[in-house]
Amino acid sequence: MILPILLIFPLLAAVPLFSLRSRRAERSVLIVHALLTAGAVIYWGVAGPEEFIGYFRADSGNLLFLALIAALYLAVIPASFLYLERQKASELWHRIYVVAMLLFVFSMTGAVLAKNLGLFWVFIEATTLASAPFIYFERHQSSLEATWKYVFICSVGIAIAFIGILFLALSAKGESDLFYTDLIANAPRLGRFWLLFSFPFLVVGLGTKAGVAPMHSWLPDAHSEAPSPVSAFLSGMLLNTAFYGLYRIFQVMDAAGLRREAALFFLVCGFASLLISAVYISGATNYKRLLAYSSIENMGIIFIGVALGGGALFAAFLHLVAHAFAKSSLFITAGNIAHRFGTKDIAGVRGLREADRPTGALWGVGFAAIAGLPPFPIFISEFLIAREMVTQGRFGLLAAFLILVTLVLYGMARAAFGMYLGSAPAGAKAEPPRPIEWLPQAVLLAILCLVGVAMPEVIRRLVEMASL
Questions:
Q1: Residue 415, CA atoms < 13 Å, CB-side half-sphere
Q2: Which of 25, 16, 60, 23 lies closest to 41 in space, CA to CA?
Q3: What is the H or E stretch that residue 52 is in?
Q4: How many CA atoms lie within 13 A of 467 on its CB side?
Q5: Cα angle value 274/276/279 (rounded, 5°)
Q6: From the CB of residue 438, how many other CB atoms can be counted at a distance below 10 Å?
Q7: Structural domain total, the chain
Q8: Phi and psi for 302 in degrees, rounded to 5?
Q9: 302 within 8 A of 319, measured Cβ to Cβ
């Protein structure tokens, strides 16, 4: 069976790496793990995603998220090798990076595969512990502060989510456990008071890891301090993993006849996230923080799409995929920019088109993808969400949505164009770009372009199955 191998391999592989002390072995293990994850997704996609063992299950509902983990893992690995080479990481920190990556991917995979809400909670907490070393990796004072902030806020969020799980268990009255399928099947018999009381705690708690307001403040600091390949994974997959659990709980609320109340909470979080991004993104001076605020905005859009339902539900999951690929590409490219210019400040980067043509092109195309310009799929998802608002006659929401998205777009465009145009400063390193610097991002953006122009049937099916 594929599933137990996928779960056990990273744990078994992490232990001997501390005794082998071989960089080649450490990198080989990462490559094997990424290929194993991709192979499992391909196998389930061909043979059917119905495989389960104990508290874990691969099915049509989580196959999209597993596919995202596999795809981004393959993109992040070469970028990680390049980052470690540039940082001249010691043997110890090279080993810490590899082991933390194994455990980070393991915890996200376990959270997505878990078919029990309690077990999902355990794995979400594990993602915090596994990813914290990355934020401290460069060992600056700001890195230390960002790490403590990340651990503290996310731990508080997880504690709040645990309270919500306890209230959800009370609503079951001993007649249903915390398995998603049982909760949905028995939803009409759940205690409405405790179920409704639990939902705000779960939204705030798990919404902390999903990067939406009101507990989003860890995200800009963590993304700006973590290695760029890790920032790609944090934004492209960790946020989606937390959202996966929240969507399962949203389904329980819907089945219990409380969709309107659940949608209200999602709308509030979604528009609050758009507002936070619109306010802060124009004043961002660090381009990695700029991308982090953009992640808050895009998660808000996903929450809004789920709340609206109808055609916007498919749009929300399409947006989830598009954001994961586009933002991962941008964060990896941001690592190349930081290496070339020696700064993360927006004002210190000018003339990307002259200093490094491939990086400049990837930065420009990546901006077009995240901004939702045709032919990229974010244009489709945002259009479908706006159309659903028109269909439902919610013109006030439509106006607020368009204004806030436009403000975010303006803030990002001003920074992106400023970095791309102008003359490169004398301090920019004049190194010939290597394929490893631009190939992963180019592949991610090419896939996005394909999805926007002629969506492959396999991707459409994955998105549809996840949104059911």
A1: 28
A2: 60
A3: strand 51-53
A4: 25
A5: 105
A6: 20
A7: 1
A8: -60, -45
A9: yes
Cis peptide before 375 (omega within 30 of 0): yes
The pair of three-digit structure tokens given for residue 398, joined into one six-digit string: 């439509």
Local structure of residue 187 (DSSP, 8 states): G
296, 219 in Cβ contact below 8 A?
yes
Task: Output the tens digit of pLDDT for each of the chain's 468 residues.
Answer: 788 888 999 999 888 887 778 889 999 999 999 999 999 999 888 877 676 777 898 888 899 999 999 999 999 999 999 999 999 888 999 999 999 999 999 999 999 999 999 999 999 999 999 999 999 998 889 899 999 999 999 999 999 999 999 999 999 876 668 899 899 989 998 999 999 999 999 999 999 999 998 888 899 999 889 999 999 999 999 999 999 999 999 999 999 999 999 999 999 999 999 999 999 998 889 999 999 999 999 999 999 999 999 999 999 999 999 999 999 999 999 999 998 888 899 988 988 888 888 999 999 999 999 999 999 999 999 999 999 999 999 999 999 999 999 999 999 999 999 998 877 776 666 677 788 889 999 999 999 999 999 999 999 999 999 988
Tokens in use for 93? 């920190």
Please give the structure tokens belonging to residue 153. Answer: 């806020």
Contacts of 324 (CB under 8 A, 6+ apart): 68, 72, 235, 236, 237, 240
| Cα 328 from chain centre | 9
Alpha carbons within 13 A on the beta-carbon side of 8: 6
Per residue in 214-253, is it b (16+ CB within 10 Å) or e — as a string? ebbebbbbbbbbbbbbbbbbbbbbbbbbbbbbbbbbbbbb
Give the range of the structural domain holding residue 223, as residue numbers without chain letter: 2-467
How many whole angstroms separate alpha carbon 236 and alpha carbon 220? Answer: 14
- Torsion angle in degrees (nearest 10) through CA of 233, 237, 241, 243: 120
In angstroms, rounded to a whole number, what is the distance separating the alpha carbons of residues 374 and 379? 6
Q: Which residues contact 424 (CB under 8 A, 6 or more apart)?
A: 350, 351, 352, 354, 355
Rounded to two decimals, the pTM is: 0.96
195 neighbors 166 (Cβ within 8 angstroms): no
User: What is the rounded distance in angstroms from the CA atom of residue 341 to the CA atom of residue 330?
Assistant: 16
Q: Closest Cα partner for 135 from 232, 229, 237, 227? A: 227
In sequence order, which ranges of 88-116 are alpha helices (DSSP H)? 91-113
Tell me which residue of 227, 236, 228 sits closest to 72, measured CA to CA: 236
The residue length of the chain stands at: 468
The Cα 411–Cα 290 span in angstroms is 9
The pair of structure tokens assigned to 420 is 């791309």
